[in-house]
Fold each of these.
Amino acid sequence: MTDNNDAALTFDDIGMIFPDGTETLQNISFPIIKGEFVTVVGPSGCGKSTLLKIASGLLEPTAGTVKVDRDRLGYVFQDATLLPWRNVTQNIELFCELHGMPKDERRELAEAAIELVGLNGFENHYPKSLSGGMKMRASLARTLTLKPPLFLFDEPFGAVDEITREHLNEETQQLFLQEGFAGLFITHSITEAVFMSTKVLVMSARPGNIVAEFDIPFDYPRKPDLRFDAEFARICGEVSKELRGGHS
Amino acid sequence: MNDADASETIKPKTADGRSKIRSAALNIIPPFLFGSLIIGGWYFISYVMLAENRRFLLRPPDKVVTEGFLDWGGTGGMAEMLQSLWSSTKVAGIGLFCAILLGLFLAVLMSQAITVEKALFPFLVTLQAIPILAIVPLISFWWGTGQTSRVVVCIIISLFPIIVNTLFGLQSAERGMHDLFTLHHANRLTRLRKLMFPAALPAMFAGLRISAGLSVIGAIVGDFFFGRGEVGLGQLIKRFASRLQGEELLTSVILSSLLGVSVFLLFTWIQNKAIGKWSDRAGLV
């Protein structure tokens, strides 16, 4: 595996066997270099989310090591995980609050993050009155307040409709360019993976390992029309073929 | 990033004049009709089913109003009943307050250590399962027959729903939310204060509303059984029953019920103020 000093995250021969004996991951090794946006696609149950949990320290691998700075790690869950009793601003301030930041400072950061994700005017709304897309924006904004050098995305847009998902893909891509973080993104959607990433990794069925790697050649910022490009379609086809191979 | 799409927001519904009237009518007319049916049935039993010499078994509503509610003076008059009501309210209030403090403390303790939960829970279930009248004699041995014993009865009777509901609420925060706090190195106290406790509020209020009613029952049962010291509604009910004072008996029963309803509504109001903005569980019931 590559030993790179510019790596924001490095998985080195990661294996995971759960206490019930289920082997979920096997020999996973890859780095994420600063400025890279890597997406992992794979069939359900192949261990994609487990990989993110290992990266974040929520789970300890049974084999291998992870190199990552966990002090300011950004983690966006499948669900927006907003606290229902806090309004948008209070939710976005949460991480700064947990890190002991003074009130003025965290309010300033929250306002900037709200501006960045376009939630102006909704600062005092409670999560129950927000749509799925807006909840995800608030969740992104909350993570942005810490200015993390590495973002982990666990199928964040899986629960929203197709059009909202496309919008959120474009917006996340813009944030990636603006904020310059490295990203590890998990998804089931091949189009989403190719549209967002600098690199797509394909995982096999359980026990998951990396069976293919695709460098995505398109320049940023990527326009929505890219999804109708012939080269884009060809790469999606290749990823799909590998995915089906890994599935069988 | 693009501006948030306003069409994505689910705007809170604002009721127009007509739907407000419809909603008010829906809240008033069915209980009014049902109440009328009950009073009609009550009259029917008093005047049609019961012969005059047996009418003391269920005095008609107008007699209850004139001889119970509107008769202020003398022994068993409204003035005495209101004094007893105040005494029972104090006992129920103090008992409920102690039960809330003890219940929250135990629930928090149980939520923090599974061994404590495993150790305490069977005994709490046992305490809850003992009929209160069976331990009232023991309570009178230990604490006498004064106010303290009545408060103890209130605590015992209203403690369980507070503990069970609060514990359920404290354990109800989603796994993902706990993961968030873990990722940001939140300590136990921060997690309790900022996640578990607010998450527990809806369930906690459900328990408090049940316990508030139970506490009133405890105050009246305790007073009924101990039968000494400051006169509460329980002693009055006992006295009116033994003297066959049907109107006064029914009046004190209605006052007891009103006390229960009042504390229930008080806690519903507090609940709506505390969590109404964000919880779907806020509301009248």
Amino acid sequence: MTTQSPALLIIVPLISAILCLLLGLIRRGLCYPFVVAVLGVSVILSFDVMGTVLNDGVIRYRLGGWDPPWGIEYMIDHLNAFIAIIIASISFVVAIFSRKSIEHELAKGKIIYFYTIYLLLFTGLMGIVVTGDVFNIYVFLEIASLAGYALIAIGRDRAVLASFEYVVLGTVGACFYLLGVGYLYSVTGSLNIMDLTLRLPELYHSKVILIAFAFFMVGLALKIALFPLHVWLPDAYTYAPSTVSAMVAATMTKVGAYVMMRIMFTLFEPYFSIKLLPVTTILGWVAAAAMIFGCIQALAQTDFKRVLCYILIAEVGYIVLGISVGNRAGFTGAVLHILNDAVMMACLFMIAGAIYYKTGMRHIYEFAHLHKKMPVTVTCLVIAAISVVGVPPTCGFFSKWYLVLGAIDARQWFFAFLLLASSLMVAIVFFKMMQTIFFAPAGESAHAHIDEPHKEHKHSRDEAPASMMIPIFIMVAGILLLGIFSGQIVSTVIQFTVPKGF
Amino acid sequence: MDTMQFIIGKFNYWIYIVLMMIGFYAMIAKRNLVKKIVGMNIFQTAIILFFISTSSKKGGATIPIIQGGHGDAAGHVIDAAQYLNPLPHVLMLTAIVVMVSTFGVALALLIMIYREYRTFEEDEIYETLEVMRLKK
């Protein structure tokens, strides 16, 4: 089984998506345990793949037995395997969370379709991660995006409109990526990443290659919502159902950042991306702007999920900054931050979902004295928040530490300063929130739009059900453990992901 | 003269760029959501034209089928100049599938938008939203 694991990572969820639809037609209740089981299998498979990579080195799986430059090859090294574990684990935990939340927020008839599309989304994300073929990445990118559009559109209020905007901009991003593939193919005649790596160096000064690179970067920047191209993200992720927000916020942007790393440092050599073109300089400034802009916008929002969306935009800025400083510490920080940010964002969006499920509250000004009603949830919120801010025992600190080290190594003092400044601004965002929760004057909560029934048992303890709390606990434990063991993670996995030439 | 030659000689690429820009313009500037979707489709179709153009050859090149039969007669290898590269065509078959599904999802979203707001005009939708917000 181990030899076939790379293909099974995609085939299992893809076939299960169809089976899930059929099972749902027999009995609706079967979908949930089935999806959780399938994702559990995927988590095991992803760890299995990681084990193989750690023991035997890079996996090169020939799909259908065709040799690499002609057939599709799945190439898995430490970076892929690491991202695959993140995606599988987050999807698994969020799937556990989904049960009550989806029953609460969706019409009954839609639950089957929700789980089917959820598995398709997972298939797409997994496909992007394991494949070693640039065109295949496009196809999986679109599978993931199409599933994302559909999942976001089932949300509340303006979800459909937000999803429509996402469709238009997401398609432009994907089309730019496809054009980049076309330009590369027209001069090299190859689509396989490892094959292209060998063919490209002699063409580095060709204008076609430069244009292809530019198309890749702009297309991916749209997909990961890098600052000036982020407009679709806040609306789409705010109005989506809580489960969907947790899933897409934690995984979609991370996978896009992974593709960016692949293209900049595997497809093209670091020499091309760093020395030959000023790409990293431009990306660095854009990322710095994203960090500051995201935090400023987060300060101005009242909707809890929208605050998180803008923090997510800032976090994307951190990851891209780590990529763009172009040295060992920076890249380590970026990869580690992909992991930490996925865990933190999944945790925070699930907490938002739990609060919405129990109280129907979405805005921060309504959260006054929430700790009396949901003390455990608020404790989790505090831990996740200090992790996003970057306080030592939690995982958020360590990735920021590496990012700042990377910026200092690159002699980019200003970026190092902006990283710290943006952390402080995130701290202000969360301190404001804590102030509302813990210290709001008793009278102040009256002006908020809290319905009367909520008010009556406002001070009696009333936590979300266990199926929502356990995933949140897992994530909070993850935040603490990943922080404590971040040294081991870096030494066993991440140090091997750093591209040669750094 | 050279520029004329440059433009006419590579007219298919020029058409791809023009089509793409038309699509892009419609997506950005049009206030009607259906027109945006149509613009999106034109944008994607332009990319198909680009890919197909890269595989085209002058001088009567054809599809790569072995002429002169199979089996014993199949010994003669066809000259690469005699047939078109089929791979971009195959890639575009996949891309067309992706584009059709994107179009389908977008149209489904439009139906949902129409049910909710009774219009496709962006301005009117935002007006409705504003009214709803003020009512709250």
